[in-house]
Amino acid sequence: MGTSTLVDTFRGHAQREPATVALVACADPFDPGSDTVYTYADLDVQARRVAARLGREVEPGARVLLQTTGAEFARAFLGCLYAGLTAVPVPPAGDNRRHRERLAAIVHDTEAQALVVPAAERDRAAEGLRACGVDGSLALVLDEAELPPAGDWTPARAEGPAFLQYTSGSTSRPKGVPVSHENILANAAHCLRMTGATPADRWGGWLPMHHDFGLVYQFLGPLVAGASTVLMEPGAFLRRPHAWLHLVHNRGITVSGGPNFAYDQCSRLVTDEQMAGVDLSGWRNAVNGSEPVSADVIERFTKRFAPFGLRPGTMTAGYGLAEGTVCVTLSPPGVPPAVTHVDAARLSRDEFVPTSPESSPRPRAVSACGPADNGGFDLRIVDPDTCDQLADGSIGEVWLRGPSVVAGYWRRPEETAAVFGAATADGETGFLRTGDLGVVHGGQIHITGRIKDVLVVNGRKVYPHDIEEAARGAHAALSTGVGAAFTAPALDGAEQVVLVHEYHAADRSEHALAAAVSRTRADLAAELAVSVPGIVLVRRGQVHRTSSGKIQRQSTRTAWLDADLRVLHAELSEPLQRMLTAHRSAAGSDGASAREAVQA
């Protein structure tokens, strides 16, 4: 890129190609006439005006939280960069207690001096801050009519990271990841190489800006490249998944991505009637990432939308994480991701043994997520206990180093020391320990799970996403929902598997609910050879997930233990039932509900 900051890059585009479309803010995915279009010159003017305003409100180098979306987010984020401030994207305001507490924790952790909100949300945001013991006056509206002229902007030197990305908390409490200008520029260049994209491509989608996949891949990366991107409200996709596919068609998007669950929802929920008039032949790269990639979902999505022009090699499988800015590797564009069938029983023992679907009683299809040696990262597979580097074909922890890897966690020296700057047994240093389990096979990385999520049952390792995926296929009422599998200690100390799963069916009679549990338990035993002593069926939306769709298993586990889920039906083994009753009694709860008293 040849520049040291994002501001240099964006200003360079504005000077060289001022009339090139940079950003399209989509108000209605079905109506291109509702779009607001910004050229690079427009964005530069907006960024300078916002920077001039922020310079009057906060101290140099301060952290500014952004709780806006679309064009409002874009100008606020760029304004922070132009003012030398650190942007902190956070989820939109919500009435959920967990959301408010998370926001308050981020305010305290960052010592933020402002929370940028839409005008219509200022009073609500201020009230929510005060409810959590935070100064409500932090809520700030960047009303365009009140912004200073662009000429009032004074170039500012970046005093800290470009932004703080708070991790999703799928396995632990969220941590701030400080991402530098250099990290973003390096990762944007790497992502362009991996996707094969050029400035002529148009990016876009619905991904939220408070997640690295949306912020870096969908927003910043295209702008660094001098391309254009289309931002659609995440809620539009969640309400109507086919809106994403109409957006790709109507706006001529060639590069768009999403987490595995988004492709799964489209495959299951979008009808032929909703796809009327949609042509997906121009969609060149559909990245599937941000959570374990399902080979089955890739196949189903590709087949489902082939009649609408989707080509077999459109979907690519990716692997990334916030600590690596976003993109680590992607499967090659233009060809379907490689899929390897392995023996599931031996995989539970951390043995990656390729097999044919016909020769193994329980084969598992594992998708490759891209080349391990890709020029952007030094990727190693390492024994997490001995730190010995492992040979190809062996499962271990994924370690990374390279210019996209951030320096550490925000103000957490102990956790930074434990995760960053790791050394292999033979003395190579400077590695990030990802906590992800993977294996290099055929030159490509295959992610098999996370160290913290692996369940150990009777001395055998079981991957929770295998249980969750099998459960979705076990019964129609579970097929469109999500589940969280985890272990809980019975009073005798033995760990027992519990599955909390959403139930989506009109028939909620005791007979129907019990039948769903019975069928699911039987299928899990037959397919995975695993006993699930606790199955809890809950209402839609009760399984905790991050903004990118990652299942928050430990958070869901805590909510179940604390009777904080809307349970429809539960069948628990007697040891689990006694443990649950004891836990809730100690916590002052009323104990298990009548429905949770059903014995497995």
Task: Write up this protein.
- This is Long-chain-fatty-acid--AMP ligase FadD26.
- Its EC number is 6.2.1.-.
- GO terms for molecular function: adenylyltransferase activity; ligase activity.
- Residues 11-410 form the AMP-dependent synthetase/ligase domain.
- InterPro entries: AMP-bd_C_sf, AMP-binding_CS, AMP-dep_synth/lig_dom, ANL_N_sf, FAAL/FAAC.
- With 600 residues, the protein is α/β, with parallel strands linked by helices.
- It has three domains: 6-181 and 209-232, Rossmann fold, CATH 3.40.50.980; 339-450, Luciferase, Domain 3 (Luciferase, domain 3, Roll); 455-599, GMP Synthetase, Chain A, domain 3, CATH 3.30.300.
- 32% of the residues lie in helices and 22% in strands.
- It has 17 helices and 27 strands.
- The strands form eight sheets. A five-stranded mixed sheet has the order 23-24-25-26-27, with helices on both faces.
- A hairpin with a 2-residue loop joins β19 and β20 (444-450).
- α1 packs across α2 (40-57), α6 packs across α7 (212-225) and α10 (260-269) packs across α11 (295-305).
- The longest helix is centred in the C-terminal third of the chain and has 19 residues, at 510-528.
- The protein is globular.
- The N and C termini lie far apart (61 Å).
- Residues 589-600 have low confidence and may be disordered.
